[in-house]
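User: Continuing from earlier, I have the next pair ready.

Assistant: Great, send them over.

User: Here they are, in order.

Assistant: Folding the first of the pair now:
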Amino acid sequence: MLFDLESDPSEQHNVAKEHPEVIERLQGLFDQMAAHVPPPPQAKKRAK
């Protein structure tokens, strides 16, 4: 989802389809950040 907060401050109109280049750029930035974040620790099973 992508919103133009200047013209749509209540975030009612998704403009992602009109701006695929922005979505692609943001996805690339997210992927770069995610590559540097360690995965969450696995939940330990409780002993019965």
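And the other member of the pair:
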Amino acid sequence: MKQSRDLTSGSLFWNLVIMSIPIMFSNFIQVVYNLADTFFLGQMTQGATEGVAVTGIAYPIVFLMSSLGQGLAVATTALVARYRGLGENGKIRLVLGQTFLLNLFFLSFLLLIALFGVKPILGLLHTPEAILVSAVEYISLILFGAVMMFIFFIFQSFAVASGDSISPMLINLISVLLNLALDPVLIFGLAGFPVLGVKGAGIATLVSRIGTVVMAAYCMFRYYREFIPGLSDMKPDFSRIRVILSVAIPASMAQTTTSLGFVAMQGLVNSFGTAIISANAIGNRFVNFIMMPPMGISSAMAGIIGQNLGAGKPERAIRTFHIALLMVVTIMTCGAMVLYHRGDKLTAIFVNDPQVIGFANEMLKINSIAVWFFGFLFVLWGVFNGSGHTRPVMIADLLRLWLIRLPMAYLLAGYFCNQGWPVWIEEILQHSASLLADRPYTAIWWPMIFSNLLAALMAAIIYRRKTWLNAKLDMN
């Protein structure tokens, strides 16, 4: 299973291909987790639309709760890759030990949310009463599974930074196969099990997530024993924790602002009813699928750029960006065409409700433009995350979601109208809302194009300044 490689030499194109393909497949597997729940719940004879809606509501909430773990994962990749390039294994053990210590703190926070915070959050999001109980059960179980994923994120980041993207892929593959086997059994009550519906989907995902942690632990002890931190490496060292957090906090903030943005957007989505919730949920699954190649290439870039900067080869890091950008532009052009021309056919795989299919088709046509700019943004994020220069990622996320997409969406949907504004402001707001008066729900999707474009332009300007080449990551 161990497939670590030196990323400071050899063909950059093939390093990107060899590293990114397993990561893409791992990302595909992660999407399958949600697609499996969506697919099987959509086949229920009763409550299919409601079941699919629950998975749509769960996504932004779980994404939000997982953001802290993702930030630590980014820091682990940047630091481990840097010290792999330098050949300093002792510092890698120290990074893993201190990261694991921080992880325990965040795991405790996530468990508290899973136990006591889900229902109040759903209430704030105006979740329809018809699906509230099912949503609470499902999301609580998924959050317990996310606790397991926190631990797996650290292993996955270590492996990718070491040039091994095969091991995480194989672990994810086994886990998703287990989930696919358990989903129909627990949802429909096969093989003597009771019919659990939405709750069964959550249990299946939780059991599968536990399996990933067991397999990751086996892999570390079997193939990477020399990197397992000792007790001295896990003793709190605040100067070194500060270095980790200097990378992790901006990355976590980027994830958190994105997650909070999606949660706020989900509140707008929920206001349009169950059919729009279901269409948005299914459409997001396909968008996530199309985004897997740039996500995989971005993650591969982080390991390659980190190792080469650590080895004192900045020219290879720059060339990595150019090659990755060409790859992503080609892939996203093809993916965007599929979304635009085949959105209705894709949606019909999961539901047979004509209204939901029509709404999802509209969403995918609009998103076929938005994802192209998002792919470009992911390439830039790979540069910044790999160098440990994570602040631009945080700034870009703040810009695209909170300063552009959310205000624009609520403005076009007419939510600011009739609030006692001065006459001239009210006229502007009424005119803005009238632009989509015949299809107000599309206000959810049109702002994605403009927000992704402007964020990508801003990130490109920061890249051109080349400050990312000089990021300081010292664990001495």
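Worth noting for the second one:
DSSP finds 14 helices and no strands in the chain. The longest helix spans residues 48-86.
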